[in-house]
Amino acid sequence: MKGIIFNVLEEVVVQQFSQDVWEDLIDKAEVGGAYTSLGNYSDEELASLVTTSAGVLGKTPGEILRWFGQSAMPLLATRFPSLFEPYKSSRDFVLSVNKIIHPEVRKLYAGASCPFFHFKPSENGSMTMAYHSQRKLCLLAQGFIEGAASHYHDRADVHHRECMHGGDEKCLLEIKWSA
Ligand code: HEM
After folding, report:
1. Is 179 a residue whose pLDDT tops 90?
2. 90 CA: nearest ligand 1 atom
3. In this predicted model, what pLDDT tens digit does every residue of 42-57 receive, in sequence order?
4. How confident is the model at residue 176, as a pLDDT?
5. 74 pLDDT exceeds 90?
6. Which of 22, 124, 159, 178 stands 20 to 30 A from 51 (CA)?
7. Whose CA is nearest to atom 26 of ligand 1?
8. CA 7 – ligand 1 centroid, Å
């Protein structure tokens, strides 16, 4: 996992809690704690930080991932304005993730292994987004979508219809956008 993800996690924790809380998490999670944005760090290191944060902050690991995704979006929008500016809604932004956003991320961060999502319109006007990754970060994806909705001042209701954590082969997120 690229260091930028750890950098943003640190920024979110320091912004919403404090530097001391971040240092404490690093100690308790028994991780290196010094991350350069272009560096590569093990997925276990992120998992350990998420599990430790959950214990310290009294949440589940899934809640931490979702909260991280929601909180990360405004910071990503500040760091990478050109990735957000072409879009007028979170729907357009999210639907560009495979073709534009993650390919741009791969150019900036060589070796980044970003997931590919399968989007499909569903009958009730919403969109389903299928996600498959060994990292099983579906709730991070959900948080990113919700954070994008806040950024564009619209609304995205996301429901997990299938989940790898529940034994399904892939995650299926149903997203209903409204103004
Ligand atoms: C709503 C839009 C987005 C969604 C749903 C999304 C989702 C995800 C997910 C779930 C991962 C975890 C990797 C995995 O599952 O295997 C990931 C990785 C990543 N994403 Fe996105 N993302 C979005 C937008 C962005 C944006 C705007 C950036 C801007 C920098 C970004 C940068 C990254 C990076 C750096 C990684 C780590 C890849 C690696 O370390 O190998 N993503 N994304």
Report:
1. no
2. 1
3. 999 999 999 999 999 9
4. 97
5. yes
6. 159
7. 101
8. 13
Say which CATH topology domain 3-178 has.
Answer: H-NOX domain (3.90.1520)
pLDDT confidence of residue 124? 86
Compute the distance from residue 114 Cα to the ligand 1 centre, in Å: 6
Mean pLDDT, residues 104-128 taken together? 95
Task: Assess whether pLDDT exceeds 90 at residue 160.
Answer: yes
Q: Is the pLDDT of residue 120 over 90?
A: yes
CA 111 to ligand 1: nearest atom: 41
Q: Looking at this protein, which amino acid is placed at residue 45?
A: E
Question: What is the atom index within ligand 1 of the atom nearest the CA of 4?
Answer: 35
